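sry for the spam today, last one i promise. struct tokens for design, 224 residues
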């Protein structure tokens, strides 16, 4: 019971804290990076240190299998292509004009430092999110709660965690659609990890999604 409460409360608290920070405090993105690294890694590590019997589960999360990498690429690459095509189809329907100015104003992301952010997000930030929401969250919770609860809860928290990043960049309706997409995406990431009980497949797919978003961002910033 204590493990379950710790998992649920820590995931909920961190998700709401980060979205509050992004929406209200609006720190420079490079200031936020150390905080996110500490939060996403320290909270799970403390859990596994205290609960030594769970450390074997931690090792499973990083058990390398070549087929997982191949599977991630096979799924991620078509998603990347589809997202780029979707942008060009919808750019005259959805207003993307506020994205770059809002990110520059609220997070300090500029044309000059864009490539640093564009590398950090898919390579490191995606790992932190997958480790926290899928490895520490979903995989651990599904063994201590119902499978359905684990799917819904971690996907919902993954969506809530992104709210602060989206506010100001898109219209309300678009934000709602994006949040629904994040919930669905979270469920898909959970599904990709469930059988193997590691985070490699979802991490690689997540990277491709971030690469697609960063490609679009590069177009909006005028770096491409």
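last one done:
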């Amino acid at each position: 019971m204590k493990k379950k409460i710790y998992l649920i409360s820590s995931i909920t608290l961190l998700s709401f804290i980060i979205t509050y920070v992004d929406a209200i405090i609006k720190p420079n993105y490079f200031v936020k990076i150390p905080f996110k690294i500490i939060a996403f890694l320290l909270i799970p590590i403390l859990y596994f240190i205290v609960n030594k019997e769970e450390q074997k589960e931690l090792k499973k999360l990083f058990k390398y299998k070549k087929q997982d990498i191949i599977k991630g690429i096979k799924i991620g690459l078509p998603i990347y292509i589809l997202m780029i095509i979707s942008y060009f189809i919808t750019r005259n329907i959805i207003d993307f004009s506020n994205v770059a100015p809002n990110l520059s104003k609220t997070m300090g992301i500029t044309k000059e430092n864009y490539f640093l952010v564009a590398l950090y997000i898919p390579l490191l930030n995606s790992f932190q999110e997958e480790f926290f929401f899928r490895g520490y969250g979903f995989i651990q919770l599904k063994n201590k709660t119902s499978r359905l609860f684990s799917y819904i809860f971690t996907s919902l928290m993954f969506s809530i965690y992104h709210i602060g990043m989206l506010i100001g960049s898109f219209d309300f309706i678009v934000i709602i659609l994006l949040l629904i997409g994040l919930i669905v995406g979270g469920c898909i990431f959970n599904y990709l990890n469930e059988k193997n009980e590691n985070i490699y497949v979802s991490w690689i797919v997540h990277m491709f999604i971030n690469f697609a978003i960063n490609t679009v961002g590069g177009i909006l910033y005028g770096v491409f």
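The longest helix spans residues 114-141. ok im logging off now
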